[in-house]
Design brief:
Helix content is 53%, strand content 0%. The longest helix is centred in the C-terminal third of the chain and has 28 residues.
Length: 81
């Protein structure tokens, strides 16, 4: 998506979802990672475990974006083959 320019379409799609459904996450007192959608009723975990899981997810997103960027910049395939 980076090379072909389709990243703009993804940006617009994510911006639409954030503008439509993400307004409540910017309210004061909102718990990070709690988006109000819990179909499996897993929201009863303690705050320390929830914070660890949230930080782990953020680290994974940063790592994956670094891998994708490096693959796009070097011109080699994913993952660096």
């Amino acid at each position: 998506m980076v090379e072909s320019g389709d990243m703009v379409l993804m940006l617009l799609a994510v911006a639409f979802v954030e503008a439509t459904f993400g307004a409540k996450i910017f309210q004061p007192g909102h718990t990070p990672g709690a988006y109000g959608w819990d179909p499996l009723d897993m929201g009863k975990e303690d705050s320390e475990a929830a914070l660890k899981e949230l930080k782990n997810g953020r680290l994974a997103m940063i790592a994956f974006s670094g891998i994708v960027t490096q693959a796009a910049l070097t011109g080699s395939g994913f993952p660096y083959v």
